[in-house]
UniProtKB/TrEMBL annotation:
InterPro entries associated with the record: ArgE/DapE_CS, Bact_exopeptidase_dim_dom, Peptidase_M20, Peptidase_M20_dimer, Peptidase_M20A
Entry's Gene Ontology molecular function annotations: hydrolase activity; metal ion binding
Entry-linked Pfam families: M20_dimer, Peptidase_M20
Swiss-Prot/TrEMBL keywords: Hydrolase, Metal-binding, Signal, Zinc
The protein, known as: Peptidase M20
């Protein structure tokens, strides 16, 4: 994907350089409607940000869903809540649909949840001049608001009727429920019945400040290391009888990964490590504990990590080398590495590049400048990756900010209006 993606990016550059064209009278009205409702859109965003909706806070996720559901009801959509099986411990998804016969069948994606759980100390809405901090303000409650604001503008301009637009706001994008065939089954079915999928995750700004679009994303997967050693008195460490212990073996394996599993676009991050003589880890809550003493050689280390790759051949190469490194154990130890899949890769395709060209043209025609493609390795995983194998897809159409997933996550307020203008014009042109 990396090689073909680069060729596609170069081949499509000419289409992204098409000259700006004047907006029609209807398009000018759409832009005016977006601007007229910017203050109200920001107020609604504040309300949503001040509702904690960490993935595991099902009640909070549903509350945010109720907030947006009212908006879609007022826009003439048919709405319903999609529940997940109780065993999955996920809130479910909000679905809003309009059935028409005009233009492309569009699927718009957002998500209601954030990484900030109910006990998070991160502040909620905090305005500081032209920026706002808050839980999920850019990832991706701001993107949800771009969808609402763009659709409002189309309705007020009288061009929303007879369109075929579906909106799906998932409740567990930050930690998708298992099995994925259930938690993303509705999304896949909707994608197969659509002509294009547009996702409104946060938009990355280029070095010169211009907006970008996401035409490819790396897969999100996991690795787990199970390390064993011989428990014994610490004075025997390194001896023939005691060996090196689980902790030294863990250090060897991780450093081997760091030095030997190297490819452009490939990353692997050991997110949690627990070691000692008694280790427990709860994957559902992402919490664990370990017991050990300094005068005892540790017999167990558990490591949970994240692995991201551009395409399946790259994944297979990484898996093979990581297994080889794990197998070359120190004396008295053993290491086993296993892998899990989460989000599939989103390949760069001609169809995706065509969507980017349409988006860039809408932006340029509105006086907001052209939009370039962001490299696939610059983005994390996103829901659109479950839809992208079946339909032309474009992501990164949301707001811009800094510090996603951190206490400093923020939003540049002006990007909410700009993103809504681009989206509204693109939606209008695709539904004619």
């Amino acid at each position: 994907m990396q090689r073909s993606g680069g060729i596609l990016l170069l081949a499509m550059a000419a289409s992204l350089n098409a000259a700006a064209a004047p907006l029609t009278a209807t398009e000018q009205r759409i832009v005016a409607e977006v601007k007229a409702q910017s203050a109200g859109a920001l107020a609604l965003l504040e309300t949503s940000v001040n509702i904690n909706s960490g993935t595991m806070n099902s009640a909070g996720v549903r509350d945010v869903g109720v907030l947006y559901r009212k908006e879609f009801d007022q826009l003439g959509f048919t709405t319903r809540w999609i529940d997940m099986p109780p065993a999955m411990q996920r809130a479910g998804h909000l679905l809003a649909t309009r059935e028409g016969k005009q233009g492309k069948r569009l699927l718009l994606l957002g998500h209601l949840d954030t990484v900030f759980e109910a006990d998070s100390p991160v502040q909620k809405w905090v305005r500081d001049g032209d920026r706002v901090r808050g839980q999920g303000v850019s990832d991706m409650k701001g993107g949800n608001m771009v969808i609402v604001q763009a659709l409002r503008a189309l309705q007020r301009a009288g061009v929303l009727d007879n369109t075929n637009i579906t909106v799906l706001f998932t409740g567990d994008e930050e930690n998708a429920g298992d099995p994925k065939s259930v938690s993303r089954g509705d999304m896949v079915d909707l994608a197969k019945r659509s002509d294009a999928v547009l996702s409104f995750e946060a938009q990355i700004l280029a070095a010169d400040g211009r907006a970008t679009g996401t035409v490819g994303r790396r897969a999100s997967s996991s690795f787990e290391l199970d390390i064993k050693g011989k428990q014994g008195h610490s004075s025997g460490i390194f001896s023939q009888g005691s060996g090196y212990g689980a902790v030294y073996e863990a250090a060897r394996v991780l450093d081997g990964f760091r030095q030997q599993v190297i490819e452009p676009g490939l990353t692997f991050n050991p997110g949690v490590i627990l070691g000692g003589t008694d280790v427990n880890y709860d994957s559902t809550l992402s919490r664990g504990n370990a017991f050990g003493k300094t005068n005892v050689i540790a017999n167990t280390v558990t490591i949970k990590g994240d692995l991201r790759y551009l395409d399946y051949p790259q994944r297979d190469r990484a898996h093979a080398r990581m297994r080889e490194i794990a197998a070359a154990s120190l004396a008295g130890t053993s290491a086993t590495v296993s892998f899990g899949e989460s989000y599939p890769p989103m390949a760069v395709t001609p169809g995706n590049m065509k969507l980017l060209a349409l988006y860039s043209q809408a932006s340029d025609d509105a006086g907001l400048g052209k939009v370039d493609a962001v490299p696939a390795e610059a983005r994390g995983a996103g829901d659109i990756q479950f839809a992208a194998p079946f339909v032309d897809s474009l992501d990164g159409l949301g707001v811009s900010g800094n510090g996603a997933h951190s206490p400093s996550e923020d939003l540049e307020v002006a990007t909410l209006e700009r993103a809504a203008i681009r989206a509204a014009l693109m939606l209008y042109r695709m539904t004619r």
